[in-house]
């Protein structure tokens, strides 16, 4: 049963990522997708970012989840030139947050007090990288 649920969530993330990529115009040779999930946790946000950045189209994913611990995932397709770590740190420093930097994507969890601003963090990041 768990495997079926995981497979369904993976398929859902892929479908949403494909639709978002299709709807997004290209900017400077890449597509920048800003998305906030109010009904999905940070693990789904990471899966969405992974599907989006591995879809074969140069892309940047700036994704927030507002379920449980609020989180951000900033990721880009292989070969991308944006410094995602610096971008995340810049966004987080404005609220006193902290960042963990795994190899593929960057995740930041902050306090519940920043719930209403998680979308604006992604929008600010998009402006910073030229969306």
Description of the molecule:
The chain has 131 residues and is α+β, with helices and mostly antiparallel strands. It is built from four helices and five strands, in the order αββαββαβα. It has a single domain (2-128), classed as Diaminopimelate Epimerase, Chain A, domain 1 (Roll), CATH 3.10.310.30. It has helices at 2-23, 42-53, 84-93, 118-128; strands at 26-27, 30-37, 59-65, 70-76, 106-110. The protein has a five-stranded mixed β-sheet, sandwiched between helices. Strand 1 (26-27) and strand 2 form a beta hairpin. Helix 1 (2-23) crosses helix 2 (42-53) and helix 3 packs across helix 4 (118-128). The radius of gyration is 14 Å and the shape is globular.
Helix content: 40-55%
Give the beta-strand count.
5
Portion of residues in beta strands equals 15-25%
- What's the overall average pLDDT, rounded? 79
For the sheet with most strands, the description reads: 5 strands, mixed
């Amino acid at each position: 049963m768990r495997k079926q649920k995981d497979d369904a969530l993976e398929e859902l993330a892929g479908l949403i990522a494909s639709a978002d990529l299709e709807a997004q115009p290209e900017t400077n040779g890449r597509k920048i997708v800003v998305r906030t999930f109010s009904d999905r946790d940070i693990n789904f946000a990471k899966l969405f970012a992974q599907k989006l950045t591995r879809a074969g189209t140069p892309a940047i994913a700036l994704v927030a989840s507002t379920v449980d611990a609020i989180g951000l995932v900033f990721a880009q397709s292989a070969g991308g030139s944006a410094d995602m770590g610096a971008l995340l740190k810049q966004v987080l420093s404005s609220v006193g947050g902290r960042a963990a930097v795994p190899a593929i994507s960057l995740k930041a969890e902050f306090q519940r007090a920043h719930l209403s601003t998680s979308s604006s963090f992604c929008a600010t990041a998009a402006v910073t990288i030229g969306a």
